[in-house]
Amino acid sequence: MTEPPAESLLFDVPPPLTPVERLLHLADRYTQHNDALDLLLVATDPPAPDAHASSAQRLATDTQSVVKAIHGERLYESVELTETVMRLRQLAILAGASVDLNVATARELTALAPEAAVGCAVTLAGEIRRRRWATAPAPDDRLNAAHRTALAEIACGHVVASSSLGREFTRSREPKVLMSTLRALETKGLVERTARSAPAPYVGGPPLDRVRLTSAGITALALVIDAPPGLRTAPGTTPRPLPAVASATTRSR
Questions:
Q1: Can you tell me the distance from the alpha carbon of 114 to that of 232, in angstroms, rounded to the nearest whole number?
Q2: Residue 234 dihedral angles phi and psi, to the nearest 5°
Q3: What is the DSSP string of 83-102?
Q4: Which end of the chain is more exposed for a tag (fewer CB within 10 A), N or C?
């Protein structure tokens, strides 16, 4: 069998992720981390004190890597950009501080991280477009306002799915993400469900299916995240200093 020319393989290499895409991937990793801790806390056997340590340390490192990627864009400084970087550095500190804490306390430190990462992505996308005089992307015919809102809610870690008595349903915050919207996004290859990976809504209940963005979904949301119609920034996503940083760092000593 003839091997293809080496130079032809260059065209198969996917482009590197943009900082906005990296932020959305980071939000997903924080959601997975939080879900894993939630399941540990309700497990029959108590979790090992350091069960979360390696995951938390990776998140701290990954968050710092995103900060470096943002600096690599060489954007002019602005209040919005400075606050975005500040928030990410605080997230890295909180994730790092949680390494030495018990699972329950560690879970509290990263509770708002997915929303914060998505909020940073919103701000950064707007800053990049404004600073570089880029025009808004052409409307994506595949995505209506409900689809875009759903993608943002999923990115924040707000959406789970399950079934009962043969009927599927979703659980989400407001604005509600309907099952019909979820199915439409699944058909387009933009979201997927990770079975039994999210905590139950009540004590003793079965784990729910976490709804997550696929790589294609992250790319699609990154293109429109700064100003899609109908999209609201989730509560707590505006980059602001976190007063918990100092106390969390102190407790970790």
A1: 15
A2: -65, 155
A3: HHHHHHHHHHHHHHHHTTS-
A4: N
